[in-house]
Amino acid sequence: FNGLPLCSCSVNPILFRSLPFLSSNTWCAYKTFFRSLQARQSPQRGAKPTGFSSNHTLFLRRFRARSSLGDAADDEPPPLVGEDSAVFELAKQKIASWVYFSVILGTVLYVLDMVWIDNSTGFGKAFINVVSGLSDSHEVVMLILIMIFATVHSGLASLRDLGEQLIGEQAFRGLFAGISLPLVVSTIVYFINHRYDGQQLWMLQNVPGVHQLVWLSSFISFFFLYPSTFNLLDVAAVDKPKMHLWETGIMRITRHPQMVGQVIWCLAHTVWIGNSVAVAASVGLIGHHLFSAWNGDRRLALRYGEDFEVVKSRPSIIPFAAILDGQQKLPKECCKEFIRLPYLASTALTLGAYFVHPLMQAANFQLHW
């Protein structure tokens, strides 16, 4: 099939219809696809025929993706093109790797505290003072902090391929984290310390059910936010950092889970706080994640090419939309994809973060940022 000339599409459907192993659903997928090829190849009046694309491999991948959706009677999802996410096999773990991870984590936190967080030795307070001096408005300062972080974070992500070629994957990951972490800490601390300093727009905290709704929404948001850190050894550059093409678990529900999780978190906290600082923070964070979703797709397309196009065609951006319209076919035991250690760890950390909220707020207040 890969070697056949595709310019004679009027003959090919007849050829394929004669094959005995094709089901009726598969034949419908073939016929629909060949008609789309004919329409694409038919030159408009006055235009010169351009012929079909020479990229037969891309054609085959897209064709297989469409034909697999046509076999609805089989009730089986198409085979994975990307990676199975959140897989953690205890037998494959090396004690030395996790000891190394603990040493790196402790070192990073110590350096971050000394160089940035501690007001007596670090530059964090000076950075906040400089940005705060740009405006008397907490809303404007909040947006500026988010813009600085977003520019650096997305800018370095866009330069990842070039940076890894120049200094290597692990060195670039260290540079990326070393610049991004102080900026994100500053942004979070400023938000926590000034979240109630804006203009109050509404007050729903005493409305029955609002606290439960905000808590549940925030809890759910972390299941979407977590896929960026499925492999902690990869994040800490203990393992060789890799740009992953995840395809299972939460990735079946939405193609951009981190963006969806950030939107849910922002909406929940904006409803709860109800003032202009919360609105400004939400606008900045959602805007950054919308751009990051587009930029992430662009980078994955450059890295994975045809495989990304296949994975992209399956889930939707809006959660559950592709599942409801039949575009994304779930395996029978897809729930088991969530009963894995990374998701269980995310659940424990989310619950822990909720219960230590008072300690987090007190620690941030002590910084006077």
Automatic annotation (TrEMBL):
Keywords from UniProt, A to Z, are: Isomerase, Membrane, Transmembrane, Transmembrane helix
Subcellular localization is given as: Membrane
Q: How does it sit in the membrane?
A: Multi-pass membrane protein
Give the NnrU domain ranges.
141-360
Source superkingdom = Eukaryota
| Transmembrane portions of the chain | 98-117, 140-159, 171-192, 212-233
Pfam assignment, any one: NnrU
Coiled-coil segments = none
- Does the record's keyword annotation contain Membrane? yes
What one GO molecular function would you report for this record?
isomerase activity
Record protein name field: 15-cis-zeta-carotene isomerase, chloroplastic
Its gene name is LOC107406004
